[in-house]
Amino acid sequence: MTFSIVVRCERTGHFGVAAVTGTPGVGTLLTWAKADVGAIATQGWINPYLGIDGLDLLGNGHPADKALQAVVSLDDDRELRQAGAVDALGRSAAFTGGACADWCGHEHGDGWSVQGNLLEGHETLEACAKAYFDSEGKDLVERLMAALEAGEEAGGDRRGARSATVFVVASELYPLWDLRVDDHDDPLHELRRLSERLGETLLPQILKLPTRRDACGQLRADSDAGLV
Questions:
Q1: 79 vs 19, 28, 73, 101, CA distance in Å?
Q2: Rg (Cα) of the chain, in Å, rounded?
Q3: Whose C-alpha in 72, 86, 154, 210 is 20 to 30 A from the C-alpha of 65?
Q4: C-alpha distances in angstroms, 89 versus 43, 209, 216, 224?
């Protein structure tokens, strides 16, 4: 059904979740991330509370493996679930239930996790992870886009792709990026277009929004100066 990547950027500390699936609306319930806390992808037969409760546990200081183990253990349908998690220290964990559709599996390491089900094969996850690491030094959204594109090129979802998403949090409670293509014949191509377009238009505005340290933000100053 899906492949995804969950990361903590080693350079910035930002968290990201990105995914592609063969059904509509992947960004609605799969992506969970909170600044300074962690990130979780929940997929397969999705249980959103793996993400919701998992982030709560990460926020209370539980490492990724213990947090994921705890929420999965409470799910009576755990064998239908799949999830990946990264915590604030870059520790990662993943789970693939025994009833997930083949090919299914996961790989994870320091600061990252990739997972997928109903794939053409393991090559999708290998390509996804490799592209992420090969693009080190670039902005996180670009690294996640490269990972999705490489995974799709290597086989991707056996049914083809229908929706795609990239979600990134930086230092605030609102996201830095929340890109979604919910229903499209070529969702990755459209997601790439959106990332480039919104990188030029929306991102500069988001970077000027109020923050916890600056309640006014820069947009007000720009407005007063006639710049917006």
A1: 21, 22, 10, 10
A2: 17
A3: 154
A4: 23, 27, 31, 41
Mean pLDDT of 105-110: 98
- Rounded alpha-carbon distances, angstroms, from residue 196 to 145, 190, 200: 11, 10, 7
State the pLDDT confidence band at 175, using cuts at 50, 70 and 90.
Answer: very high
Measuring CA to CA, how many Å separate 115 from each of 32, 82, 166?
15, 8, 15
Give the architecture-level CATH label for domain 2-224.
4-Layer Sandwich (3.60)
Q: Please, which pLDDT band fits residue 227 given cuts at 50, 70 and 90?
A: very low
CA–CA separation, 178 and 131 (whole Å) = 21
Any idea which residue has 């994921």 for tokens?
A: 68
pTM for this entry: 0.94
Residue 135's alpha-carbon distances to 26, 96, 116, 131, 132, in angstroms, are: 24, 27, 21, 6, 5
Dig out the tokens for 162 from the structure.
């229908």
Q: Name the average pLDDT for the chain.
A: 95
Q: Annotate 17-52 with three-state secondary structure.
A: EEEEECCCCHHHHCEEEECCCEEEEEEECCCHHHHH
Residues of the chain above pLDDT 90, percent: 90
